[in-house]
Structure formats: structure tokens, C-alpha cells
Amino acid sequence: MMGINNNESKIINGKNYSRDFLTHISDLAQKFENLLNRKPCLAVILIGDNNASKIYVKNKILTAKDTNIKSIEILLSKNTSECDLLNEIYRLNNEEKVDGILVQLPLPNHIQLEKVVNSISPKKDVDGFHPQNFGNLMLGNDTVVPCTPLGCWYMLKKELNDLTGYHALVIGRSNIVGKPMQSLLIKENCTVTIAHSKSKRLAEISKKADIIIAAIGRPEFITREFIKSNSVIIDVGINRNDKKLVGDVKFEDALKIAKKVTPVPGGVGPMTIACLMYNTVKLAYRRNNQMFKEILY
Ligand code: NDP
After folding, report:
1. What is the distance in A from the centroid of ligand 1 to the CA of 173?
2. How many domains does the chain fold into?
3. Which of 68, 117, 220, 267 fits 29 for a cystine, CB–CB 3.0-4.6 Å?
4. What is the pTM of this model?
5. How far is the CA of 8 from the CAs of 76, 85, 247, in angstroms?
């Protein structure tokens, strides 16, 4: 019994964090409506019929509804041409009452991600992927931060408060997670190492890290040999294993050795959606020249 309680106290509960954060965002959205007589509005484009994407979009739409945010769902067939998709984005860029535009990934193979990312107005870029917003993040300027790293950052700040001087290891260098995460941690005065598939002696490096952000996409890749005692582990990975979801971290090993760890599901996932709502409301205030009292990035 003692052991179970001990383990529970080690779990970083992303669901609880996201619930509290969403309550706050919902208040901000309500204030926006009081000021402008309309809700902040998020447009979500889904191309094709990828089942996981459909579930993600459904969750985003439901969360928006619960958070005083209007959502518009645009469903396009998997054969939609790149040109038609870009035209849809340009149309939304010019819609006065649309504050944020999200194109659900992955895209069908015939559509270039880069073109899509570049076509979304930086002022409506809720994902923070546009080069202008991404560049500002690298420069340490105020910007729109990609949702998943922002959610990881949020939980780390709640758990550790001051991150100064910690050695943080980010495993994965994608534009969506690894690279923006690195920038956030540098700004927090961490000593940051970024690793990827070509890194050598990863377990050795990892064993020295105070914080591990695992964004690899390999089920339970991070095992006891990678984990330093008393470290904090944020598991970004979502992998389907024998019909159940597992992260990039072997959870039982992390529970035994680390100080804190996020579970999968129930860790980074809920915070990612909360941060999407946050970015939508933030952009809504900004676009309408309303003062947005920063509650985080
Ligand atoms: P990518 O596939 O774009 O990137 C994976 C990264 O991991 C790459 O940089 C790759 O290196 C690195 N990598 C792969 N194998 C190894 C290895 N053996 N050792 C070290 N590094 C390795 O994935 P994403 O960043 O988009 O996503 C990562 C994971 O996070 C996935 O499981 C994804 O489903 C999940 N995810 C979860 C989200 C959430 O809301 N919880 C949101 C976004 C993603 P290289 O660059 O050399 O190829």
C-alpha cells in the first residue's frame, strides 16, 4: 500500500493540470466574448480519413466547446489537391472572425507540409509552426509556441518551478516537438542536450540528465539504463502496442528510478490540447488589439 501511494506521488498528472488550465482559458475566452460580442474561433481542417486524426480532431472540437471557443470543422477528402487546400487556408486567413487555423497532421503524401505551414497567416498560426513564429521562438521573443512543447514546459514549471542549471536531454529533433522544446529549455537556463537517431552512447548521456523529454516515437525505448535517479521525465511518445497506448518510456522503470514521470495516456496529450486552446485565445486577443495579460508564453 505504501509503495502504491509513493508511486502515485511520482506521477505528473497531465489531466489535472490541463483541467485547471482550461478553466482559466475558458474565463479568458468568456472575457473576450464580453468585449467583442463573439467567441474566439478555431478552424480545424482535416484531410482524409485517418482514424487517429479523426479522434484528435473530435477531441479538439469538444474541448473548444467546453472552453467557450467556437470551432469550425472543415472536412476535405483524401484526394483534395494541394492547390485546393491552400485556397481553403487563404480563405480562412481572410475570414475576419476566424482567430486560429489548424491543419491536422499527417497530410496525404501528395501535399507538401512546408507549403501548408507557410500558407497559414502567422497571426492565425495556432500550432506555432510558421517560420516567423518559429524563428521568434528561437530568438527568445514573444511568439506562439507549438502546443506539445508548451504543454511539456508548463508541467515542468509546475513541478520544478525554477529550471535554472538543470541538465535537460531532449530526445528527438522534430520541428513539432524536439526543436521548439530545446528553445524553451534554453530560455529557462537549462543546459540542453538534443539527441536523435544518429546519437551515440545515448544511454550514457541520458543517465546524466536531470530532465528527459522523450519524443522519439519508439515504444518503451527509454528503460532503466537511461534513467538517473531523482530525474524528471516527460514522455511525449504515443505508440500503439497490442491495442494499448504506451509512451517512449518504460513507465514501470521510470516509476522505480525517477522522481517524477508523465504517464501515457494522461500526461502530455491532455496538456497539448489545453495549449491549443490557449494559443487560440491568445491569438484572438492579439488580432483584435485587445490587451492579453500573459499567463505564460
Ligand atoms: P518524428 O518522427 O518527427 O521525430 C522523432 C525523432 O526521434 C527524430 O528526431 C528521430 O531522429 C528521433 N529518433 C528516432 N529513433 C531514435 C533512436 N533510436 N534514438 C534516438 N532518437 C531517435 O516524431 P515527432 O517528434 O512528431 O513525435 C515523437 C513522438 O511523440 C511520437 O510518438 C508522436 O506520436 C508523439 N507525439 C505526441 C504528441 C502529444 O500530444 N502527446 C504530439 C506530437 C507527437 P532523426 O531526426 O535522426 O530521425
Report:
1. 7
2. 2
3. 68
4. 0.96
5. 43, 46, 18
